[in-house]
């Protein structure tokens, strides 16, 4: 980027307690100044940010880019990155349930090299807790962390065995890396494909009770009490889970949880209305669960928003419900969906919501510098137009996958510029970008 001013925007940085209207000056991609008075720099490009938010780059700690993939390509690292950039994200954490699973330091090194080749968005890989995510043999957690694993998880599978879980938590505590749990008791979800309840009984699909999630959270809290690892619950679906996390946090356990767009906006009725496009793991629940998750967000129990971006080829969704794949893509449209669920509903304001997408997840993965704007650093900034109305069209997603139940939804709020490492990775600025006359 040439010298550029982001002019007259609402600068929100929760880590630094900024929320004011002002300018940000970038020179050679580096943040040179952040000011609440106009910066009178001449001979530079100007991005008119009036009415827009200037935020630290958005961070999503839970995405699936499916590489290595063993020849199947529902997404690639490259297309996943494009989807992230289109959605305003400058950092994403990839899950290790790939083929092969990321359970060796060499695979972490390869993932890092592959992911960060194009320089459009930072990709931080997570690594397995157990070899092959099978739960039988602990992965070399120290070596994985030293190779660059940002978190440890068997996502897609829970670590089921209690003794194994304790061993994993002890290693995570020792090497200061967060553990992310896919909370699903396999014993109570055999054949389960949707929320256990009235709609499930009408449809006649296999039930997936809330207790499958809650029992794992309860067990892990108990196991972790004497260990004290940083423990994180992925994609919360049940209202009861929020209560468990709230109580553990009240006892000062280092525990956190994430909420996903679909668990905030859709109920199990979508399984009837949208078919397999509403088949999720964990499943969509009921309105009461949504309300309890929102209460948890409002009172700070749940501090992180994450998409669980899960690309699948359409032929795996075009199946009888019991056989279809679980999950949806989310990076392209997540920001507007969070705004719909949380801001339009009066749960949070923009500043509070952006904390859940910047400094809060950055703190969880021990990278606080990612969630804040720092003079002297290469700029990773998202410019958001909170009033921009648009319609979600899956066919225009940068992701190569199309499995998204929000197609056709009218939403508001969009990233119009994504700047990563000083480079303008997304430019949807229209008249707002005014190039300097002299360059
Ligand atoms: Zn999961």
CATH topology: TIM Barrel
Using DSSP, what is the number of strands? 18
How many independent structural domains?
A: 1
The proportion of residues in beta strands is 15-25%
> What's the alpha carbon Rg, rounded to whole Å?
21 Å
The general outline is globular
CATH architecture: Alpha-Beta Barrel
Bound molecules: zinc ion
Would you mind describing this structure in some detail?
This protein is α/β, with parallel strands linked by helices and 439 residues long. It has a single domain (57-371), classed as Metal-dependent hydrolases (TIM Barrel, Alpha-Beta Barrel), CATH 3.20.20.140. Helix content is 28%, strand content 22%. The protein has helices spanning 77-86, 105-115, 141-147, 162-174, 198-203, 211-224, 239-250, 261-265, 269-273, 287-298, 314-317, 334-343, 350-355, 359-364, and strands at residues 4-13, 18-27, 30-35, 45-48, 53-56, 58-63, 89-94, 122-125, 179-181, 194-195, 207-208, 231-233, 255-259, 304-305, 381-391, 410-420, 423-427, 433-434. The strands form four sheets. Strands 1, 2, 3, 4, 5, 15, 16, 17 and 18 form a nine-stranded mixed sheet that branches. Helix 4 packs across helix 6, helix 6 (211-224) runs parallel beside helix 7 (239-250) and helix 7 runs parallel beside helix 10. The site of zinc ion (ZN) has 5 residues, from loops.
Descriptive key words:
18 strands; binds zinc ion; nine-stranded mixed beta sheet; TIM Barrel; 14 helices; alpha/beta; 439 residues; four-stranded parallel beta sheet
């Amino acid at each position: 980027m040439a010298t550029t001013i982001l002019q007259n925007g609402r600068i929100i940085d929760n880590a630094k307690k900024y929320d004011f209207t002002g300018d940000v000056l970038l020179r050679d991609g580096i943040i040179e100044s952040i000011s609440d008075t106009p910066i009178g720099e001449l001979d530079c490009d100007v991005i008119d940010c009036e009415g827009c938010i200037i935020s630290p780059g958005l961070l999503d700690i839970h995405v699936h880019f499916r590489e290595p993939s063993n020849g199947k390509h529902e997404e690639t690292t490259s297309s996943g990155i494009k989807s992230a950039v289109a959605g305003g994200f400058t950092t994403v954490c990839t899950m290790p349930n790939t083929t092969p699973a990321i359970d060796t330091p060499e695979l972490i090194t390869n993932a890092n090299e592959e992911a960060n080749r194009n320089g459009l968005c930072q990709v931080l890989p997570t690594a397995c807790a157990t070899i092959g995510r099978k739960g039988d043999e602990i992965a070399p957690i120290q070596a994985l962390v030293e190779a660059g694993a940002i978190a440890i998880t068997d996502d897609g599978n829970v670590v089921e065995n209690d003794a194994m879980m304790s061993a994993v938590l002890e290693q995570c505590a020792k090497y200061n890396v967060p553990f992310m749990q896919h909370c699903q008791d396999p014993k109570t979800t055999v054949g389960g494909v949707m929320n256990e309840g009235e709609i499930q009984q009408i449809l006649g699909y296999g039930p997936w009770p809330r207790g499958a999630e809650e029992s794992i959270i309860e067990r892990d809290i108990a196991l972790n009490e004497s260990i004290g690892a940083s423990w994180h619950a992925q994609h919360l679906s049940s209202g009861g889970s929020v209560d468990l996390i709230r109580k553990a946090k009240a006892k000062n356990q280092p525990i956190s949880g994430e909420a996903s767009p679909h668990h905030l906006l859709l109920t199990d009725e979508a399984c009837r209305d949208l078919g397999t496009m509403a088949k999720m793991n964990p499943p969509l629940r009921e309105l009461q669960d949504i309300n309890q998750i929102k209460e948890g967000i409002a009172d700070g129990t749940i501090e992180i928003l994450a998409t669980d971006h899960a690309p699948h080829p359409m032929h795996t969704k075009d199946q009888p419900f019991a056989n279809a794949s679980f999950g949806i893509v989310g990076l392209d449209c997540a920001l507007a969906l969070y705004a719909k669920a949380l801001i339009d509903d009066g749960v949070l304001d923009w500043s509070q919501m952006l904390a859940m997408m910047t400094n809060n997840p950055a703190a969880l993965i021990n990278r606080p510098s990612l969630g804040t704007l720092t003079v002297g650093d290469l700029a990773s900034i998202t410019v958001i137009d909170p009033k921009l109305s648009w319609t979600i069209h899956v066919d225009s997603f940068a992701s190569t996958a199309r499995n998204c139940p929000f197609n056709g939804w009218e939403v508001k709020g969009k990233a119009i510029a994504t700047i990563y490492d000083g480079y303008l990775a997304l430019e949807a600025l229209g008249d707002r970008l005014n190039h300097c006359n002299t360059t």
